[in-house]
Design a protein that fits this description.
This protein is mainly alpha-helical. It has one domain. About 85% of the residues lie in helices and about 0% in strands. Keywords: Membrane, Transmembrane, Transmembrane helix.
C-alpha cells in the first residue's frame, strides 16, 4: 500500500496544503501592502489566491480518485477567502465613512 492510500497521510497533506495556501495569501497581502486597497483587480484576485494554490496542490490527489477531500479543501479555502475579503471591505467602508 502506497503512502497516498493511507487516510492519515491524506489528512495531514490536506492540513498542510490549507496552511500553506493561507501563508501564501498573507505573504501576498504583506507584499503588496496598500496596492490591494487601491486596485480592485488585485483585491478580487487576492480573495482567490488560497483557492488557486490549494487547487494546484491537490491535483495529484484528484488524479488518484480522492475527490471528496480535495474538493472540500478547495471549497473551504474559497469561502474563507470570500469571507476574509468581505470583512476587509466592511472595515474599509466603515473607515472611509467617518
Amino acid at each position: 500500500m502506497t503512502l497516498n492510500q493511507h487516510l492519515w497521510f491524506r489528512v495531514l497533506s490536506y492540513i498542510g496544503i490549507f496552511f500553506l495556501s493561507w501563508s501564501v495569501e498573507f505573504l501576498y497581502m504583506l507584499g503588496l501592502g496598500n496596492r490591494i486597497v487601491n486596485n480592485l483587480g488585485l483585491f478580487i484576485f487576492g480573495a482567490f489566491i488560497p483557492f488557486l494554490v490549494s487547487l494546484t496542490l491537490t491535483f495529484k490527489f484528484m488524479r488518484k480518485g480522492h475527490l471528496v477531500g480535495s474538493i472540500a479543501l478547495n471549497v473551504i479555502n474559497l469561502f474563507f477567502g470570500i469571507a476574509l475579503y468581505a470583512f476587509i471591505a466592511l472595515v474599509l467602508i466603515g473607515a472611509n465613512s467617518t
